[in-house]
Fold:
Amino acid sequence: MPVVPDLPLFTETADNEFFGLPMEMARTIRLTGEAIAGHHCRVRLPYNKAFTNSRGDMHGGMIATLFDAGLSAACRAHDPRKYGVVTIDLTIHFMAPAPGDMICHAVCERRGKSISFARGEIRNDAGELLGMATGTFKLLERGVAQP
Structure:
């Protein structure tokens, strides 16, 4: 069972943003922040042959990228535009191949003044569990963007 409840879709974002923050990497790999609220988020990474291994499954590095983006977003879910996040630690358990789209469901289990702890799952569209992860993240209040 996913760790994220049903959440309203997050639609207030531009093509080069990820949950309201500029992130060119998200646009490049088509990472989509679908929902975010409170302590939870849901992020999708569509299948892309350019990011597959020799078997045609999504490469483990892409799975790690999805976990990093999803868990860190859950840590700033209380105010997505106010905070950026730096990853301190990320532990991943790969459980099954990912031959299609992947959806990360993540929750921030504890949010301190600057350090947060999150966990998440990646599932396919059929709901099959592909991996689990935990992570530690540092919240950074965002200032005025520099050119």
Remarks:
- The chain has a mean pLDDT of 88.
- The radius of gyration is 14 Å.
- The domain at 17-141 is CATH 3.10.129.10 (Thiol Ester Dehydrase; Chain A).
